[in-house]
């Protein structure tokens, strides 16, 4: 019984001692937490005069407590720009709303250096609701500012690299297209290239060039893929077509030669192919005779002088370069005064017009558009289609090449 009493009495004494020690530590920790907090604290009177400041902020500023308390205003610690901002914006905000947070400012240290900080201020009110003082919490933003500068530098480098890549892509793209179309006597010619992205080189291409006598060759095609590898194939296809046309201008033979070159060049695992429509034209007394051969390409369109539009279908034409013995089909047509021949790549007919359905634009819709546009001549047709593509906005998901040839109406002049 006595042992139990002694144990119980001793336990009570220990608890009282621990409680007293805990209270002392709690009281000491509260003061220490304020004085040596990881952030700066200060309190000011309503006119901004500093009434209390913790040791952390004094250490950051390199100032003594007696230099600030009762002698300086908080705005005196700010740079000129920060002082003006505090007096014109933060002060009125505190008066109206009683608090202001997340403010990026700079403090002036005793050695003249600047300390970037984030400041949160709140007005303390008495029981009667009257404002008594302003409590201000200050966070060191040097690491954050350094991170922001590094982030900005990295962003600037990234943007510069992107600009260089875009310029390279644009320059490379221009080398894959003729700088201008050669004038064809008695005809009007026009072309347009619409890139779906400024960051990548597309695989669409076209050209118009003289052959033997008074005949001319022309083509428009689309290489599979994008980027530098597609650009290599595009360059190869374009110059092969021109060389093949000079060697043997028969349209089917021209595509046969291109198919042989592409298939031999890329017959390994990295198969490369393209769609192409190649044509030859021979001016005559009433306009010009056209022969077209297609390798898997969308059909050409003829816009007649009276506004009637029609496709020049070449069924059965295979992709160029995909297989060694691809077959190609040709079609002939005649252009008279006021008639226009249009070649285009599938970036146009696979675009998604702006609207709720966002369905792909079809070849039939292209035919209807040209009929309704009342465009006459190559330039007007290309202008109308350029506006159409622009109106699609980001609905154009693939590059689009356009090439138009027309016979001017009597009295309208040649191109």
Describe the structure in your own words.
- The protein is of the alpha+beta class.
- It has two domains: 22-140, PAS domain (Beta-Lactamase); 177-406, Phosphatase 2c, domain 1.
- The protein is built from ten helices and 15 strands.
- The protein has helices spanning 2-35, 55-61, 65-68, 80-97, 142-175, 227-247, 251-265, 346-349, 363-373, 377-392, and strands at residues 40-45, 50-53, 99-108, 114-125, 131-140, 188-194, 204-210, 216-223, 274-284, 287-295, 300-303, 309-312, 329-335, 340-344, 400-406.
- β11 (300-303) and β12 (309-312) form a beta hairpin.
- α6 packs across α7 (251-265).
- It is elongated.
- The termini are far apart.
- Mean pLDDT is 84; it is low at 1-10.
Relevant terms:
disordered N terminus, 2 domains, elongated, Beta-Lactamase, 415 residues, 10 helices, alpha+beta, 40% helix, 5-stranded antiparallel β-sheet, Phosphatase 2c, domain 1, 27% strand
Give me the secondary-structure topology:
Elements: H1 2-35, E1 40-45, E2 50-53, H2 55-61, H3 65-68, H4 80-97, E3 99-108, E4 114-125, E5 131-140, H5 142-175, E6 188-194, E7 204-210, E8 216-223, H6 227-247, H7 251-265, E9 274-284, E10 287-295, E11 300-303, E12 309-312, E13 329-335, E14 340-344, H8 346-349, H9 363-373, H10 377-392, E15 400-406
Antiparallel strand pairs: 1-2, 1-5, 3-4, 4-5, 6-15, 7-8, 8-9, 9-10, 10-13, 11-12, 11-14, 14-15
Helix pairs in contact: 5-6, 6-7
């Amino acid at each position: 019984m006595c042992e139990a009493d002694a144990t119980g009495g001793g336990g009570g004494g220990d608890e009282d001692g621990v409680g007293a020690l805990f209270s002392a530590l709690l009281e000491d920790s509260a003061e220490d937490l304020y004085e040596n907090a990881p952030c700066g604290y200060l309190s000011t009177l309503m006119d901004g005069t500093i009434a209390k400041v913790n040791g952390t902020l004094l250490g950051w500023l390199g100032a003594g407590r007696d230099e600030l308390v009762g002698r300086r205003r908080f705005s005196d610690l700010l740079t000129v720009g920060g002082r003006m901002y505090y007096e014109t914006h933060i002060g009125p905000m505190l008066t109206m709303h009683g608090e202001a947070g997340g403010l990026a400012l700079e403090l002036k240290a005793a050695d003249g250096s600047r300390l970037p900080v984030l400041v949160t201020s709140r007005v303390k009110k008495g029981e009667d609701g009257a404002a008594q003082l302003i409590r201000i919490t200050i966070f060191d933003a040097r690491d954050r500012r350094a991170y922001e500068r590094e982030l900005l530098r990295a962003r600037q480098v990234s943007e510069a690299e992107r600009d260089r890549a875009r310029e390279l892509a644009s320059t490379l793209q221009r080398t894959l297209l003729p700088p201008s179309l050669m004038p064809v006597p008695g005809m009007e010619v026009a072309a347009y290239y619409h890139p779906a992205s400024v960051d990548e080189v597309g695989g669409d291409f076209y050209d118009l060039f003289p052959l033997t006598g008074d005949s001319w060759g022309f083509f428009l095609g689309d290489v599979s893929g994008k980027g530098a590898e597609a650009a290599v194939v595009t360059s190869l296809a374009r110059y092969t077509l021109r060389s093949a046309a000079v060697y043997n201008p028969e349209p089917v033979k021209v595509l046969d030669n291109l198919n042989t070159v592409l298939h031999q060049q890329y017959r390994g695992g990295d198969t490369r192919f393209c769609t192409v429509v190649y044509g030859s034209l021979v001016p005559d007394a009433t306009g010009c005779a056209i022969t077209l051969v297609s390798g898997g390409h969308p059909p050409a369109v003829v816009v007649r002088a009276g506004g009637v539009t029609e496709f020049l279908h070449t069924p059965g034409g295979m992709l160029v370069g995909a297989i060694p013995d691809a077959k190609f089909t040709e079609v002939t047509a005649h252009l008279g005064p006021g008639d226009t021949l249009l070649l285009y790549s599938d970036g146009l007919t696979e675009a998604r017009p702006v609207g709720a359905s966002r369905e792909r634009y079809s070849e039939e819709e292209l035919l209807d558009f040209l009929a309704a546009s009342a465009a006459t001549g190559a330039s007007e047709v290309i202008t109308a289609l350029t506006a159409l593509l622009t109106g699609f906005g980001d609905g154009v998901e693939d590059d689009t090449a356009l090439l138009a040839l027309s016979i001017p109406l009597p009295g309208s002049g040649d191109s």
